[in-house]
Amino acid sequence: MILKLIWVIQNQDGWKYKKHAKEQGLNSQFTVDSDSGIVLGVDVVSDPTDHHQLIPQIENLQNNGFDLTNTKILADSIYGTKEALEYLEKNGLDAYISKQKTSNHE
Question: Which of 22, 38, 39, 80 has the most Cβ atoms closer than 10 angstroms to its Cβ?
């Protein structure tokens, strides 16, 4: 199985900027089986970014009975925090996370 983490911020959700003031909205997280397109996990959080959402999504799947052995986890670079990478390694999970771009020359 190949899992893909995606996020959706609807027009009225997420961080909105209005007259130099931030208003917090909702950030939806989805975990999808890449082969079938079936949504396996959903979470709605008030965090303005996705940095700390990889671990909760994995634990959500495991708590719902999904065995992630032999599963490839795909995620964007924003999920690749030091904490998340250490968690993945400690738990023997096979993850492919995009490298963060640090300059315009990479």
Answer: 80
Least Cα distance to 69 among 58, 82, 77, 80 occurs for: 58
79 in helix, strand or coil?
Answer: helix
Q: Specify if 20 maps to a domain.
A: no
Q: Classify residue 32: in a domain, yes or no.
A: yes
Tens digits of residue pLDDT in 37-88 = 888 888 888 777 788 999 999 999 999 999 998 899 988 898 999 999 999 9
Is residue 79 in some structural domain? yes
* Strand 94-97 relative to strand 39-45, pairing: unpaired
pTM of the shown model: 0.73
Phi, psi of 103 (to 5 degrees): -155, 175
- Cα 86 to its chain centre, rounded Å, is 15
